[in-house]
């Protein structure tokens, strides 16, 4: 997206609000996709119900950390990625 330079006139109120709404929509879409990816990971690797997966993913995105203790052994990340999923997601 191209923005106006210092030498051009500022945008009209309508165009500014339209740009602001577009940026907000893109930000919301990125947050929603991140939340869905985290939910999918928790549901697949930790076998959590969708409500618990939503809670854990939302708490991690908010910077608070997981609510449920991990069901998988987190001492090593091999041979499957399941133990490290919360670490990768955060």
TrEMBL record:
Organism of origin: Georgfuchsia toluolica
Protein name (Swiss-Prot/TrEMBL): Uncharacterized protein
Transmembrane domains' residue ranges: 20-45
Keywords assigned by UniProt, alphabetized: Membrane, Transmembrane, Transmembrane helix
Keyword Membrane: yes
